[in-house]
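FW: tagging you since you asked about this chain on Friday. Here's the raw sequence from the shared folder, copied in full. Didn't touch anything.
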Amino acid sequence: MRRGFTLVEIMIVVAIVALLAAIAIPNLLRARVNANESNAQATLRTISTACESYAAANNGNYPTSIATLTGANPPYLNEDYTASARQGYAFACGTLAATGYSCTATPTTCNTTGTRTFTITTGGVLTSAACGGGGGGGGG
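HL: got it, structure written out here
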């Protein structure tokens, strides 16, 4: 008597594995997007804290470049977060002036690496908008 699996048994196992994959993969991808978005917010808060600390030490004048923050001794920032994308987000500080700042985190691939664009402005005000440029509001 031969022992082994029949074609029907193998097909049932394949169907079960496919069903489990169909359930698990979207959840794993969503968890990755959530992690990317949380990291983007944390990075913007780090930049904001550095800018606010700089202003506190310089009579209320904010830094005029990232190099000012990374080149201080000791540095306000350990690295230039705007130099390259990290964890699915690209960072840019469109406004760095003595009167204030505005920095943005944009997903490198909308709806794949992130679903929202985040902006932090003078005073540490964090806002978000759909990465396609649509609605938004609130942050956190």
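FW: Strands lie at 89-97, 100-107, 116-121, 125-130.
HL: agreed, and Helices lie at 7-57, 66-70.
FW: great, closing this out.
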